[in-house]
Design brief:
The protein has 239 residues and is mainly α. The protein contains 10 helices and 2 strands, in the order H-H-H-H-H-H-H-E-E-H-H-H. The longest helix is centred in the C-terminal third of the chain and has 30 residues. It starts with 15 loop residues before the first helix and ends in a 12-residue tail after the last helix. This is DUF1275 domain-containing protein. Keywords: Membrane, Transmembrane, Transmembrane helix.
């Protein structure tokens, strides 16, 4: 029998637990590409823009233009994650957020079969793509703006919270600061765990990221089919 959570303020895909699991997985993805796939961080694109600009500035045109590939993959992921939710919503079976986690899990599983002898760029672009979709899809945890694939905003928010606590004695800033600190801790723990197992499991170490992904997928599927089936048309906050 299907139940409803129409009176709930936030969806399961907006829960803090969801974001903790996403950050945990993202930390693993970042550590994986850095340790085993070219010493790059594919969860965001600032570094690619900087390296491209520096390389072009040195006159190495062909090498510089290469960075348009991961940048384009990130752009494509954002574009698709904006376009595809509407047709998926009309099917009325699962939310786009849930489908995305299934796609991510499938991509990470496939990456585990790609030998380290294969050019790193293939895996880098794949992670660029799914990280972009995740970043654009999961935007707020229970009303608090979030980035799920990198740490810069979380670190800034912890700093802001500390300033408000000290200067204004703002007690509400404590809980917000702790949320962002928790996200940083989750990301860091994921990166530590994958780094520890990287030399042992090699290319298959990315499968460790499937643990939080599959836990989250099971939770979201259950919510879509039972708890929140009547809310499939409702947009998460921030969209």
């Amino acid at each position: 029998m299907k139940t409803s959570k129409k009176d709930s303020k936030y969806l399961v895909c907006e829960s803090k637990t969801t974001y903790i699991l996403l950050m945990f997985s993202a930390g693993m993805m970042g550590a994986y590409t850095f340790n085993l796939r070219g010493e790059v961080f594919c969860n965001a694109q600032t570094a690619n823009f900087v390296i491209m600009a520096v390389t072009l500035g040195k006159g190495e045109i062909a090498k510089g233009l290469y960075y348009l590939i991961p940048i384009s993959a990130y752009f494509l992921g954002t574009f698709i994650s904006e376009v595809i939710p509407t047709p998926i919503k009309k099917i009325g079976f699962l939310r786009w957020d849930t489908c995305l986690i299934a796609i991510e899990a499938a991509v990470l599983f496939a990456i585990g079969f790609i030998p380290l002898s294969i050019p790193d760029q293939i895996v880098q672009v794949a992670i660029n793509f799914i990280a972009s979709m995740q970043y654009n899809t999961f935007r707020q945890a229970e009303g608090v703006p979030m980035a799920t694939t990198f740490c810069t905003n979380h670190l800034r928010q912890v700093g802001v919270a500390c300033a408000k606590i000290i200067r204004k004695k703002d007690r509400s800033a404590v809980s917000r600061g702790l949320i962002h600190a928790g996200m940083l801790a989750s990301f860091t723990l994921g990166a530590i765990i994958l780094t520890f197992f990287a030399d042992i499991l090699q290319e298959k170490s990315i499968w460790l990221a499937l643990v939080p992904e599959l836990l989250l997928l099971c939770r979201l599927v259950h919510a879509d089919l039972y708890e929140e089936h009547d809310l499939l048309m409702r947009k998460p906050s921030g969209h």
